[in-house]
Every structure is written in structure tokens, then in C-alpha cells.
Design brief:
Elements (H helix, E strand, L loop, with lengths): L4 H11 L3 E4 L2 E11 L8 H16 L7 E5 L5 H4 L3 E8 L4 E8 L5 E9 L23 E2 L5 H8 L3 E4 L4 E7 L5 E17 L2 E19 L11 E4 L7 H7 L6 E6 L7 E5 L2 E2 L4 E4 L8 E2 L1 E6 L2 E2 L14 E4 L6 E4 H15 L3 E6 L2 E6 L3 H4 L3 E5 L3 E5 L5 E7 L2 E6 L1 E4 L3 E4 L1 H4 L2 E6 L4 E6 L6 E4 L9 E4 L9 H25 L3
Parallel strand pairs: 2-3, 5-12, 6-11, 20-29, 21-28
Antiparallel strand pairs: 1-2, 2-4, 3-14, 4-5, 6-12, 7-10, 8-9, 9-10, 10-11, 13-14, 13-30, 15-32, 16-31, 17-20, 18-19, 18-24, 21-29, 22-23, 23-27, 24-25, 26-27, 30-31, 32-33
InterPro entries: Aspartic_peptidase_A1, Pepsin-like_plant, PEPTIDASE_A1, Peptidase_aspartic_dom_sf, TAXi_C, TAXi_N
Keywords: Aspartyl protease, Glycoprotein, Hydrolase, Protease
Organism: Canavalia gladiata
């Protein structure tokens, strides 16, 4: 393995800032940070309140190259509280960087406009806020009422068109009472990439995004303020859909969220490869990532739950959402789930109710006494949950550790699988094939990201630790060599043309 080090260093030097390849399409790595109050204990009630605000956004339906985001943060509120994920995007001419929250529950990228009313002027995250100025970007253009993009946006009931100003506007109202309004802009987003067999730096693509001119509610607060929100939803106006439709990025993204220590992980616009991944089809024609959850088993025993309570219908269904901290089960599933857990551990723990939550006082390791849980989805795909995927350690009482059920009861509405369930797993959102896959994984390790081409279907590199697999170093080296050769030929031909 040590023999690979000089080559790896050379590759990282050549391709900095850190590039991965997918199917001849390539993107750069962007740092992703998570804002979280350090060493702050957070009550479950506060987490539920945060998720209620989050779900307000989901329920109201606000409507390749490979890009790798390094992730910070953890789903464990006992150690680090709760927060948000954010990264930087580069837009405009001249290019300017903006901090944006990563949100898989909405589609639109929007930034604070320089003319914004009630926008935060500072942030408790320790970042310098920026404001987008259409007048200062030579490549910015307003989206007019006649633009096809505006026609679609209006159909989603999130936008309107002012005939007087001839500009396409939007208003997003969230369930927690917060909201934002503004207008759509087209401008240049920048990437450092390899495309096919040509080395290209400072690549770019025009994208449509929102410029916020007014905000209300929690969006006006400064404690966790950022420059905007980066929607990773499946809709055609999301950046991933815009870029993949032009062949700039693949139509798939993946994440692996660490659940131990200080958390972290990786988020990739591309496909993470892992042989144990199982897939379940997405429910078609939905604005969010809906799956067909069919049953739940505790310790291998199926619970008596009518599958219809999970079925997608009006304001019902099962959603995968990395922006939700906890997990939420409809009452018809929650009650038998908690009852089965309590029965399984009754001889080894003391069940108690703490602030309305089902908890247990435990003297032994939870892994020794709490059962595995299996969420079973359409297509035979099961999601195996270890105790730390449905329990949260919440301090000590009478000399015993107190563990509480992290799943929350929903009287009606969606079953939502949040970070508590998603951690320590690779998740692949394969939009091209309309499916989601997952596999248990140690997310502190590097992940293999596909760089499959028409001639090589099994090539990959490691992402997350920025190293190339030694077993496949030849593949990547040949690609790099061909790219450099093609680049030199291009230079020679260009120089020669000056004398013809």
C-alpha cells in the first residue's frame, strides 16, 4: 500500500481541488459543514419542534460529473445538539462564494438578494454572510414570464409572474410560519472538472435559482443563518436535475453519515459503490423521496401492522429525509413497535416515561439486550436497524443509563426516516433508475465512487479520504495519461494553426 503514496499525492496535486469521475463526467469536491451547538444537551421536545418546522417544508411541497461534499456533524443530540448541513457554491461573474444549507426536502436553490428585507446580516455559525447582486454579475439574467422555466414553476404553485415587471417570482411558505419570496435568476455556477478524456478546470454551467428579496419567521434569525438553501429534491428545477439534464453531472447522488464520535461523513453527486447495497423502487410521480414500506419486524418477528398505513396517499406515505433529525412513525405502527421493544427488554431494563417519551433504564450494553429491527420495503429490500438506530442515550438516572426511543409518534401524516435511521449507512438516490439503495457501512472509511464508462463498467476511486484504490490505480493513471496526451496534442495543433 505504501508504494501507492507518491502516485496518490501526484494525482491529488494534478487534480486539486480533489476530483472524482463518473461515466466520463467529473466534478470537484466542495466542503460541507454542519452547524451544531457544541457540548449542548438538547431535549427531545426541541428536536421534535425542529423536525415539525422541517416537516412543514416537506408537507407543503416546496416546490455526469461527480461532486463530493465532506460532511461534519452527527445525529446524536446528547453530544452535539442539532444543526444543519451547509456547503459553498460559486456563482456569478466575477465568481462569488455563498454558504447554502443542504436540503433534500426541497428543490430550489435560492440565495439572499442584496435587496432582501428582513434577511440576517450576521450568522452565529462563524461565517461571513454574502448577498447576491444581479447588477454586479455580468452573466446574470432575470427569468422572464415567457421563459419555459417560469411556466413550469408557476404550475408547481410556488411561483407567479408579474406581467408589469415581466419577471418570474416565487413565494415559499413553510409550516413553521417562516417563508421567503423573490424572483428567479439565471447565472453561471462554477466547477473544477474532468470531462471525458480532457482535463478541464474552471468549468461552468448556467443554472436557474431564486434570489430572495424578503424573509419571515425563523429564516430571519441569526443563530444558524446561511446565505440560502440548496434544494436536493427530485424536481426538474433542482440543481442536480438541471445539471444532469445537460450531462454535467450524473442523475444520482449518495451520502454516508457517520453516527459515532463527532460524526461527519460524505455526500456525493454520483454513485457510491458497495456490493451489499439493496434497492427499493421510488414511488413514481412524487415530489419527495417516497418508498413503499411494507412491514416492520422486531427480533425477526413481523409486527401486526396493516401495510396500508405506510401506503402513499393524500398526506401519507414513507419519506426518506436526511434533513430530519429523528424518525417518525404513524400511530398504527408506532404503538406495536414500542410494545414489541418493551416486551423484548422487560427482563433486562426498567421502562419509564420521561417527558412523554418511552425510555428504559439499562445497566448493560444496549447492544446486548435490545433487538434488531428490520424495515421491509418493496422489492425485498430490508433496512436492518441496530439499537443505536432507534434509541438515543439521554444521560443517567439512579445509576443506570437512560435510553429513549428515538422514533416519534405521528397521529396522521407521513412516516419519515431521518438521520437517526440513515446514519452508518450508504444511501444512493438513483434518480435515473427511480430507486433508492442502502447498505450498512462504517462511514468513517472512504467510499468507492463509480467512474464507469461505456468501456469500463467496474472502475472506481475512493472518495472521502481522497485516495485512489491501488487495485485500480492503473485504470485511473491511464485515463490521466490519455487526458494529458490529448491536451498536449490540442496545444500543438493550436500552435501550429497560427503558422498555416
Amino acid at each position: 500500500m505504501r508504494g501507492c503514496v507518491p502516485v496518490l499525492l501526484a494525482l491529488v496535486t494534478v487534480l486539486a481541488p480533489a476530483t472524482v469521475v463518473y461515466g466520463g463526467l467529473v466534478g470537484t469536491f466542495l466542503p460541507l459543514e454542519r452547524a451544531i451547538p457544541l457540548n449542548q444537551r438538547v431535549e427531545l421536545g426541541a428536536l421534535r419542534a425542529r423536525d415539525r418546522a422541517r416537516h412543514g417544508r416537506i408537507l407543503q411541497g416546496v416546490v455526469g460529473g461527480v461532486v463530493d461534499f465532506s460532511v461534519q456533524g452527527t445525529s446524536d443530540p446528547y453530544f452535539v445538539g442539532y444543526g444543519l448541513y451547509f456547503t459553498k457554491v460559486k456563482l456569478g461573474s466575477p465568481a462569488k462564494e455563498f454558504y447554502v444549507q443542504i436540503d433534500t426536502g426541497s428543490d430550489i436553490l435560492w440565495l439572499n438578494c442584496i435587496t432582501c428585507s428582513n434577511c440576517p446580516q450576521s450568522s452565529g455559525l462563524g461565517i461571513q454572510l454574502s448577498f447576491f447582486d444581479t447588477a454586479s454579475s455580468s452573466s446574470a439574467a432575470l427569468v422572464s414570464c415567457s421563459d419555459s422555466v417560469c411556466s413550469y414553476a408557476v404550475q408547481t404553485a410556488t411561483s407567479e409572474c408579474s406581467s408589469q415587471a415581466n419577471q418570474c417570482s416565487y413565494t415559499f411558505q413553510y409550516g413553521d410560519g417562516s417563508g421567503t419570496s423573490g424572483y428567479y435568476v439565471s447565472d453561471t455556477m462554477y466547477f473544477d472538472m474532468i470531462l471525458g478524456q480532457s482535463v478541464v478546470s474552471n468549468s461552468s454551467s448556467a443554472i436557474v435559482f431564486g434570489c430572495s428579496t424578503d424573509q419571515s419567521g425563523d429564516l430571519t434569525k441569526t443563530d444558524k443563518a446561511v446565505d440560502g438553501i440548496f434544494g436536493f429534491g427530485p424536481g426538474p428545477l433542482s440543481v442536480i436535475s438541471q445539471l444532469s439534464s445537460r450531462g454535467v453531472t450524473p442523475k444520482v447522488f449518495s451520502h454516508c453519515l457517520k453516527g459515532e464520535d463527532n460524526g461527519g461523513g460524505v455526500l456525493v453527486l454520483g454513485e457510491i459503490l458497495e456490493p451489499n447495497i439493496v434497492y427499493s423502487p421510488l414511488v413514481p410521480s412524487q415530489p419527495h423521496y417516497n418508498l413503499n414500506l411494507q412491514s416492520i419486524a422486531v427480533n425477526g418477528q413481523l409486527l401486526s401492522i396493516d401495510p396500508e398505513v405506510f401506503a402513499t396517499a393524500n398526506n401519507r406515505g414513507t419519506i426518506v429525509d436526511s434533513g430530519t433529525t429523528l424518525a417518525y412513525l404513524v400511530q398504527e405502527a408506532y404503538d406495536p413497535f414500542v410494545s414489541a421493544i418493551t416486551t423484548a427488554v422487560s427482563q433486562f431494563s426498567k421502562p419509564i416515561i420521561s417527558k412523554g417519551n418511552q425510555c428504559y433504564l439499562v445497566s448493560n450494553s444496549v447492544g446486548d439486550i435490545f433487538p434488531q429491527v428490520s424495515l421491509n420495503f418493496m422489492g425485498g429490500a430490508s433496512m436492518v436497524l441496530n439499537p443505536d438506530h432507534y434509541l438515543m442515550h439521554y444521560g443517567f438516572l439512579d445509576g443506570a443509563a437512560m435510553w429513549c426511543i428515538g422514533f416519534q409518534k405521528v397521529e396522521k401524516g407521513f412516516t419519515i426516516l431521518g438521520d437517526l435511521v440513515l446514519k452508518d449507512k450508504i444511501f444512493v438516490y438513483d434518480l435515473a433508475n427511480q430507486r433508492i439503495g442502502w447498505a450498512n457501512y462504517d462511514c468513517s472509511l472512504a467510499v468507492n465512487v463509480s467512474l464507469a464508462t461505456s468501456k469500463s463498467k467496474d472502475a472506481y476511486i475512493n472518495s472521502g479520504q481522497m485516495s485512489v484504490s491501488c487495485s485500480h490505480i492503473g485504470t485511473f493513471s491511464k485515463l490521466l495519461a490519455v487526458s494529458i496526451a490529448a491536451f498536449l496534442v490540442h496545444i500543438i495543433v493550436s500552435m501550429g494553426s497560427q503558422f498555416w
